[in-house]
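Researcher: Re-running this chain for the archive, since the previous output was lost when a drive failed. Same request as before.
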Amino acid sequence: MNSSSPDSTPAASAFHAGIVCIVGRANTGKSSFLNAALGEKVAAVSPVAQTTRRTTRGIYNAPSLQMVFLDTPGIRHATHRLGALLNRNARAQVAGSDVVCLLLDASLPPQDEDIGWMRKLARDPIPVFALLNKTDLPHRDAPYRAAWAAVVDDLRARDAAYVPPPIDWFPVSALTGEGLPELLDALSMRMPAAAPLFDPDVLTDDPLPFFIADIIRAHFNEHLRKELPHAIAIAVDALGPAPASDVPPPPADDAPPADAEAPTPAPPEAESPETSDNAPLPPPAPAAPSALHVSATIYVEKATQRPILLGHKGRLLRSVRIASERELHDILGTPCKLALWIKVEPDWSKNYWILKKLGYVGS
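Model: Regenerated structure tokens:
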């Protein structure tokens, strides 16, 4: 897939490339913003906080420009070990970025996690773009500007030599796209002269098994909301072409039945241009797409959580499977067949090797 856009080019003629880190508290719309900026879905989205558990890279390509966006896990008050791990991973991504986009939910007043991010970013020299998201809703920006000013004043009071990082404010809407062209233009001007970091045709380097797992978990989140989502994890165990019996057959030619009489050949004088030897051949029928077979394990920590995922007579699990297959088909352009298995794994969120398998550590 290609994320090229002709609208945003740096002023200089040399190639410019850099890293844009997207940070913020949980559920401010970071993944929705990334998808909107790229014009393609590269990150799973759901209404549940901290749907993103891994840093996802999305690559924006334009003439003489490449911007690599890092979608980080949302910061939230950690009530379990996994939450603390995700918070640490998110904070660590800031180092080495050329610009940090602090995503703020402008439909709500500043939260403790918003202030926490401001305190961290105000101590770094990296330029900050404060994105006041959800301008499609009744929104406010003055409280956030005041909060940043208070953080800067506090640091100045402690150190007279303190110099805050440059900050720019942008009202945006990841839902409607409002403000995104102006933001992308401003980001492009901050990118240093450098060679491309990825091939220009690459939209994301996110491993497909992790992406599929995120899509499945997002659909569970849609159903479970606050009931269970942070107690489950999904790992793709097998990924490959589906058995031939699962692949839809190609459309049959309009052949007559086997017992039909052979048609009488047309006389030479009745030959038309469409049937003559010199007529162009019709285009070949498109080949049927091969299906992708995915086997995935859904981890839960308690046996009592298994029937919740199954739902009454297995209906919830079936609904999640069908919705995930449809979304993956739309995104990948390939029919997908999912086989989902539920496994009780006590304290999976404390098991390093499972966390590594899930992509939460060591990536």
